[in-house]
Specification:
Elements: E1 5-14, E2 19-26, E3 31-37, H1 38-60, E4 71-78, E5 85-91, E6 96-101, H2 106-123
Antiparallel strand pairs: 1-2, 2-3, 4-5, 5-6
């Protein structure tokens, strides 16, 4: 079945966090509920940014085009077990991604954090 999405009307977490739900309306006005397991949603979330970049490159005919979000805030935290660092990047529209930085790369992460902080301070 092929669904041409016209709108995303609602979304949420279901099954005690084991799945997510997307409420859509197709191009004929029919309501469609898409429920994805956590694993399926995670795979889609990881795949969509590169697909959007490829789509943009196709539309523009420019191989250097990128799907870009504007950074609103970022933080570096320790993981719950204290062994890794977590880099949290958030866009103003609510998009947020958390990247795990293994302990072996901790020095590079702190160096990057320092460089970005200095750059942001100089730009402000």
């Amino acid at each position: 079945m092929k669904i041409h999405n016209a709108a995303l009307t609602n979304c949420g977490v279901v099954q005690d966090g084991h799945a997510v739900r997307l409420d859509l309306v197709d191009d004929k006005g029919t309501e469609v509920l898409l429920e994805l397991s956590f694993e399926q949603a995670q795979t889609i979330a990881k795949t969509l940014p590169s697909l959007l970049t490829r789509a943009l490159q196709t539309v523009t005919g420019n191989a250097s085009s990128r799907f870009v979000l504007t950074l609103d805030r970022w933080t570096v935290e320790r993981s719950n077990d204290g062994t890794n660092l977590l880099l949290i990047l958030a866009a103003g529209d609510g998009y947020e991604v958390c990247i795990n930085i293994p302990a072996a790369r901790r020095a590079k992460a702190w160096a990057l954090s320092s460089v970005v902080t200095r750059w942001l301070f100089l730009e402000a």
